[in-house]
Amino acid sequence: MKKERTLEQKFQVSFQFKVLFTHQIFDVDNTILHKLLSENAMNTSKALVVVDSGVKDAHPTLLPAIENYFDNFGKSIALQGDILEIPGGEAAKNDEALIKSILDKVNRFGIDRHSYIIAIGGGAVLDAVGFAAAIAHRGVRHIRIPTTVLSQNDSGIGVKNGINSYGKKNFTGCFASPYAVINDATFLTTLDDRDWRSGIAEAIKVALIMDLDFFEWIETEADALANRNMEVMDELIYRCADLHMQHIRTSGDAFEQGSSRPLDFGHWAAHKLEQLSHFSLRHGEAVAIGIALDSTYSQLKGYLNQPSLYRILNLMTTLGFELHHPELNDQVIQGLEEFREHLGGQLTIMLLNAIGKGFEVHEMDEELVLEAMNYVQQYSAQKIEM
Amino acid sequence: MKKERTLEQKFQVSFQFKVLFTHQIFDVDNTILHKLLSENAMNTSKALVVVDSGVKDAHPTLLPAIENYFDNFGKSIALQGDILEIPGGEAAKNDEALIKSILDKVNRFGIDRHSYIIAIGGGAVLDAVGFAAAIAHRGVRHIRIPTTVLSQNDSGIGVKNGINSYGKKNFTGCFASPYAVINDATFLTTLDDRDWRSGIAEAIKVALIMDLDFFEWIETEADALANRNMEVMDELIYRCADLHMQHIRTSGDAFEQGSSRPLDFGHWAAHKLEQLSHFSLRHGEAVAIGIALDSTYSQLKGYLNQPSLYRILNLMTTLGFELHHPELNDQVIQGLEEFREHLGGQLTIMLLNAIGKGFEVHEMDEELVLEAMNYVQQYSAQKIEM
Ligand SMILES: NC(=O)c1ccc[n+]([C@@H]2O[C@H](COP(=O)([O-])OP(=O)(O)OC[C@H]3O[C@@H](n4cnc5c(N)ncnc54)[C@H](O)[C@@H]3O)[C@@H](O)[C@H]2O)c1
Ligand SMILES: NC(=O)c1ccc[n+]([C@@H]2O[C@H](COP(=O)([O-])OP(=O)(O)OC[C@H]3O[C@@H](n4cnc5c(N)ncnc54)[C@H](O)[C@@H]3O)[C@@H](O)[C@H]2O)c1
Ligand SMILES: [Zn+2]
Ligand SMILES: [Zn+2]
């Protein structure tokens, strides 16, 4: 008789990082980055820097400013080789050779687990560089400097990275915590209007599921946001990042091992719409439509009252979001099944009981989803009076 | 005046898995694997299987047995495509195309985060397949079926994976917990003597730093182990895996974010020796030499008494380990500096106060290391009487 036995393993891993809000990060009087780079036992801290080409183009003095910043601190920090420029947007995630080019530099310059890889760019560039940093030596210190609203208030402060493979978004990637995140508001001045607006959708999302106060503040400041008021945007990003981080901290499932995705309110339809539009829709633009759809569904199903629904739809309209899109049709329904598969068999969708109060359901009435779709379309064609 | 603010993020992620000890895992009466594969909300659980070519060659009925096992359980579990065979040993980790071939199958067969990737093989195959599983969809359920002593009692029950790039061991990889590990003792019968012995070095290592009782048990059973007694090996692996897992669980640093590596007793020299021998030395063979060196150093430095040192050296000799190697020369000393860099600037080395009691130092006396090297060499040439 052979012995059958079992050992049970169970342990916790702690992750910790700071999100620092600043301006003019590469001004030599700004010592935030220098301090972060000096947090090790090395005499000289090595750093690789990777920059989003869109950011570089919009900020022609950025590269010399970075070089000057490193020179200014003498031997304590050392920029390794040339600053690596990679294309901004999905192009950064569609080309595996870019990951290889970062790993090449890690090898060439002897970057180790106590050196730094700094990424400056939008969410796409951060996702790609973050992946390379996570798999080099099983994780090199990775500092993110997000340059879009979405990456400063959502993707950049999270723990996911990834690239697209086989034509599929985020097919390859992993969970990894950044070493630190630095949100420099200066970058946002050069965003085009669509990217400025797009990131606001995630703030509305997190306000709707968690924080009535924040929602009302966004309502108050909606015109200022639409007019690109920087101070208001600063505040929006800070509060939104704070809520996202709170959620990740308290969810008990930061690495998404379970089958609930509360931060994905409005996202089942958004993911499908992004795909149906061949990614001509920005993520935040698709999320706005997804929010409109699931809020309307919540109202039709009797969970959310009508005045609340109008507030939600009106806020998004004031901010300039299109709530309808040619691809918002029956095919979107397939997104429900894809989301269910993604979650591993059981569907879990966040809906609204009230503004600031999300709750989860495990079934969606497809007829009613189609009705909600129709309603959003009529609202957006201004056929519905409020 | 611009506002400078900071948000602090801190959270913990829980990891949990079982290590199941069994025999004849693909016997249709053995339901362990079927149970693991059924732990999701799917009607049919999809699984990819990857096998070490060395294991397949030594077990010619393995592949048909796996296919038969899946067939036997009907629609509840489904093997996806052909069983993928990859070369055993370091070859598995030297060819990036193998990772790609696993990801190709993940894509082709719609493997998602709730499907399974099963790897059957030695530590090298598990490291490579584990890496692919960790980065596909940010982590597909990964079941490890280790087939060597080392992988059953050490590497397979840990949380590291990786492949070799740029000629460097484990250059690319990440930390990821397996979904489950199944140690099937049946595989060990076909190991060659070097691989049988090699894994025993890790058991001696963990006994020396943590558990006098276990060390004395190994002493008692040394002849049985040398004569390939299977029941004794079963027990050795179980106790060694248990100690390793305990250590990982209680270290507070399972993902090695700090700069202490207690489980790497004897490993600074071992890593250098593996490299100097162009990997003609097995990992465990190099670890045995590293243990001899650091135990001798502990004695010369006055931490460990001489009878204890003799017990250690004698045990390894009885088990058939060579404690000297042509590459054990002055160059090994460089391993100290490389280990220091690997730890991020501060050297931390485990030494012995007594058998079963490791402690850490932050400095090594290089003269004394050379003396220890000389001593081990003389001992091994039987110039030292005991
Ligand atoms: N990791 C996560 O948790 C997570 C979460 C949500 C979204 N994402 C990913 O984020 C990506 C979207 O990121 P995004 O919305 O930040 O946009 P983006 O990275 O796609 O960038 C959009 C465009 O703006 C340019 N740009 C960036 N910063 C600029 C600036 N300051 N001035 C002028 N131009 C600038 C870029 O070059 C690019 O052309 C997607 O790939 C999405 O999958 C990741
Ligand atoms: N991930 C970790 O924490 C960790 C820890 C230590 C070592 N490792 C890695 O593990 C690898 C070494 O693993 P290993 O010692 O298990 O050897 P191995 O995987 O290199 O295999 C050695 C040889 O044995 C063959 N083999 C495997 N099982 C067999 C069986 N049952 N019968 C006959 N032949 C069999 C293989 O085909 C191969 O030729 C190294 O790459 C090392 O870096 C990883
Ligand atoms: Zn989003
Ligand atoms: Zn080892």
Automatic annotation (TrEMBL), chains A, B:
EC number: 4.2.3.4
GO MF, one annotated term: 3-dehydroquinate synthase activity
SUPFAM superfamilies: Dehydroquinate synthase-like
Pfam families named among the record's database cross-references: DHQ_synthase, DHQS_C
Keyword Transmembrane helix belongs to the record: yes
Domain spans labelled 3-dehydroquinate synthase C-terminal: 199-331
3-dehydroquinate synthase N-terminal domain span: 84-197
InterPro entries: Dehydroquinate_synthase (IPR050071), DHQ_synth_fam (IPR030963), DHQS/DOIS_N (IPR030960), DHQS_C (IPR056179)
Enzyme class: lyase
Record field: transmembrane: 115-136
Cofactor: NAD(+); Co(2+)
Coiled coil: none
Keyword flag Transferase: no
Keywords assigned by UniProt, alphabetized: Amino-acid biosynthesis, Aromatic amino acid biosynthesis, Cobalt, Lyase, Membrane, Metal-binding, NAD, Transmembrane, Transmembrane helix
Protein name in the entry: 3-dehydroquinate synthase
Organism for this UniProt entry: Flagellimonas algicola
Top-level taxonomy: Bacteria, Pseudomonadati, Bacteroidota, Flavobacteriia, Flavobacteriales
